[in-house]
Structure formats: structure tokens, C-alpha cells
Specification:
single chain, about 100 residues, alpha+beta, Translation Initiation Factor IF3, four-stranded mixed sheet, 2 helices, elongated
């Protein structure tokens, strides 16, 4: 499966547009990690616990996006975008979307 943020794929021709594909992942923070993060916020710097959590959430959303595109018999997704939003205090959503297509 080819995933690109562009509307075209260099060297390929879109022969069929299958339609919109979308997928999401919602993750909540962990109380134990919040305590460690709270201490880090005092001195500054990266928050690796949250970096890892968001990276896992992005990968899960993209994996689900690929599954949805495959169910539509697509072999690529163009115009892939990732957005995030806070669902509730302590929980965030990553949404992936794009256009499923068949390329040759």
C-alpha cells in the first residue's frame, strides 16, 4: 500500500478513485506516567512518555487507514492527512484520512 501526502504519485497514474478513507485512534494518559511528566515539566525538555504514546496512536490510525483502503480494493491512498484533537481531559484522538485510489 502506497501512502502519500501529495495528490499524485510520481511515476504512477491514478486509474480509479475509490473514495474517502478515514481511521482514528484515541489514547488516554496513564496516571503513573503523568507524575513523571509533571516533574519533567518543571525542568523542561521532551516528554518521552507522551511522544511514545502519540507515535503509537499515529501508527495505529495509519494501519487502520490502510485496512479500510484495502477493503475498498485500493492500492494507494493520496492526500493523507493526520489531525489531532483533545477528546476529554487526558485523552487525545489522532485521525488519519485521505483518498483511496488504484494506481498503475
Amino acid at each position: 500500500m502506497i501512502l502519500v501526502t501529495t495528490e499524485q504519485i510520481e511515476g504512477k497514474k491514478i486509474v480509479e478513485v475509490k473514495g474517502l478513507v478515514k481511521a482514528g485512534s484515541i489514547r488516554a494518559r496513564h496516571l503513573g506516567k503523568d507524575i513523571t511528566v509533571g516533574l519533567r515539566k518543571i525542568v523542561g525538555g521532551e516528554l518521552p512518555e507522551y511522544t511514545k504514546m502519540m507515535a503509537e496512536s499515529r501508527e495505529e490510525a495509519l494501519m487502520r487507514l490502510v485496512e479500510e483502503a484495502e477493503e475498498m480494493d485500493a492500492n494507494a491512498v493520496v492526500g493523507v492527512r493526520l489531525v489531532t484533537s483533545m477528546v476529554t481531559t487526558g485523552a487525545s484522538e489522532i485521525m488519519a484520512y485521505g483518498t483511496a485510489v488504484v494506481v498503475k
